[in-house]
Specification:
Distance between the termini: 57 Å
CATH superfamily of the largest domain: Response regulator
Strand order of the largest sheet: 2-1-3-4-5
Number of domains: 2
CATH class of the largest domain: Alpha Beta
Helix content: 25-40%
Number of helices: 9
Largest sheet: 5 strands, parallel
CATH architecture of the largest domain: 3-Layer(aba) Sandwich
Number of strands: 12
Radius of gyration: 18 Å
Length: about 240
């Protein structure tokens, strides 16, 4: 029987007490961990370590977490690696900026180490889950989502999505025609079980629509409720 390889976590924070604490608890859960206190070496470390998830502080000297996240998203080998921001910048606008940069989660300091470990496990579990009877491809209009290859094509052209954007689009396509409330999306895409800002959903839907381009109108906004993948395009329905 093949033994599963432990997942790899890269932690980047200029405070050694934070990296020591987080690394200790993640290692105790069986993760392979690499921790850095110098943000300038983060991209090189990520390219050699090839982590399954990155935990980033935002406020760091020389190179901040937002800049590092953008660099990760621009790297072909790292662009789909989930990113959790761990930061003292806890205002709503800061969180929105982090999510718009491509982060998958945002945890303000001071934080609960137990909650952080649970968030890490939750994100990695979502990525590794796969039902044997689920369709390998989903296609609506000019949108083609390849589940096994984790790729999305718009009119035959590949589109780069973050892990969260891919999960969001997949869920909407699988449940086409059914309204998905913001709360339902938070639980099923982000796996949140506590109440947080529903603007998290709105931010990701806006980013997803931008990337879908000419196919963006397949995602309908249901005012005051949430979103759904339309049965027919608006122009087709009105024809």
């Amino acid at each position: 029987m093949t033994e599963l390889k432990p997942k790899k976590i890269l932690i980047v924070d200029d405070e050694s007490d934070v990296t020591d604490l987080v690394a200790y608890h993640l290692k105790a859960k069986g993760f392979l961990v690499e921790a850095l206190n110098d943000p300038n070496g983060s991209i090189g470390a990520a390219r050699s370590f090839l982590p399954d998830l990155v935990i980033l502080d935002v406020m760091m000297p020389d190179l901040n977490g937002i800049q590092i996240c953008r660099m990760l998203r621009a790297d072909p080998k790292l662009k789909r690696v989930p990113v959790i921001f761990l930061t003292a910048k806890a205002e709503e606008n800061d969180r929105i900026q982090g999510l718009e940069t491509g982060a998958d989660d945002y945890i303000p300091k001071p934080f609960s180490i137990k909650e952080l470990v649970l968030r890490v496990q939750s994100i990695l579990r979502r990525l590794s889950e796969g039902k044997s009877d689920e369709p390998k491809r989903l296609e609506i209009g000019g949108i083609l989502l390849d589940v096994e290859r984790h790729e999305v094509f718009i009119g035959g052209r590949i589109v780069d999505l973050t892990a969260t954007e891919f999960k969001l689009l997949k869920l909407l396509m699988e449940r086409r025609g059914r309204v998905q409330t913001r709360e339902h999306l938070l639980i099923n895409v982000w796996n949140y079980e506590t109440e947080i800002e529903t603007r998290t959903v709105d931010t990701h839907v806006r980013r997803l629509r931008e990337k879908l381009g000419s196919e963006a109108d397949w995602i309908e906004t249901i005012r005051g409720v949430g979103y759904r993948m339309a049965e027919r395009r608006v122009q087709e329905a009105s024809a």
